[in-house]
Specification:
CATH superfamily of the largest domain: Porin
Order of helices and strands: HHHHEEEEEEHEEEEEEEEEEEEE
Radius of gyration: 26 Å
Shape: globular
Strand order of the largest sheet: 1-3-4-5-6-7-8-9-10-13-14-15-16-17-18-19
Number of helices: 5
CATH architecture of the largest domain: Beta Barrel
CATH topology of the largest domain: Porin
Helix content: 10-25%
CATH class of the largest domain: Mainly Beta
Length: 463
Amino acid sequence: MVPHKNQIKMKPTNSQSTRFALPKLKSTVLKSAMLKSAMTFATAALVFCVAEPFVNAQQTAPPVLRAAAEPAAKDASDAAKPEAAAAAQTPAPAESSSMDSGSMDSGSMDSGGHDHMVQLPGGGPALKIRGFFDIDFGSGAASNTLIYPLPVNNSVFRAGEFDLFMSSKLSEKWSFVAELVVGTDQTNEWGLDMERYQLTYRANPYFEASGGRYHTAIGYYNTAFHHGTWFQTAAGRPFMYFFEDSGGLLPVHSVGITTTGLVPGSGSLNLHWVAEIGNGRGSDLGAAQVQNFVTDRNAKDVNFAAYIKPQWAPGLQVGGSYFIDRLYPPTATGVYRVDQRVSSAYAVYNNGTYELLAEGVLLTNKAAGGSKTADGNKTYDTPLWYVQASRKFHIYRPYFRYQFVNSPLADTVNVFNGRYQGPSVGLRVDVTAYAAFKLQYNRVDRGPLPAQNGFTAQMAFAF
């Protein structure tokens, strides 16, 4: 999701609004005719400017580049459905023909007056784009599965996240992925967010490194399911994995370096390791939580994870992670230090028919501010967990989820305080190979506050 409080809206000044105004005409008919002629001329000029470079590029582009621009036919098999989400989310596009590593010569620019049409040596790597979107109807305070809290309790048709997933294989060992999301929220304004961008070098199965903005390897769900709702069985993520700008408690994004690989000699146990270092989450809850460009401290977050995928138990994955960070939240008397730790453990099983997910996370914030904060050296623990089960019957998949979050009221670091627990029951229907209709009921118990109920109908699809 995207915070939209800082959207810039351009408003013309008086000089701008009158500079190109038509002179006053006595004849209304004459004014209308002139306007129509001007619009027709402007439209024709725009079409010519846009179409001519495109036609020239199609005529002069090498065969490899033209072939890369044509959509590839895709097989509508069950392997493309959510059961294979981990593999389907990062499809590797076919590598283009060999690239010349030398610099571009004079022939790599179109000399026909369109110098902006750059042709890469050898045609360049192929860029593959996939899109994901969902359109929802919600009724009840707990119907929203994307943002928390949402104070509006009215029934509403709403847009989900418009997600464009891009991938390109630069060479045999280098690749790039990016995820660009357009979304809206309670302000009813649209915003644009670069959710992920990762340049990856894969030396061999034992070592792979990516730099950029990534989903931290905390638990299972955060790296198995990204921003395309179509991949997920349910209508939304578990509350514990809500995104930072949507009311989430965990640092699910980071900007830095993530590395992973297979442990040599692990054999049929298929043991993998993960090590990450990044900017960490913003210390000030009132500022952007993902530190994309500047950071409020020199300290970096580090995260270590490991998991097994035994060959003798296809579909089974068991793992855990340990995340370390240091925050400096501002107060009226200055800033104080908070040592943050996130421990996780999970076990999941998905063989295409049965899906069983169970995860637990302990978020610990230890204040060490001395006289600068009333917290003293107190430690606040926030337990978060969920379980989910589903079973596929042809195109139907009924599912059940129960989740629990309990954030101490005195913890000033967490964006959410209080208890959030309750069940979700739903049905997913794969109406086509790339479109799913979901019906889901949610109930949220909030401790001393009244419980909330909600009903969601969702159409999620890939394109």
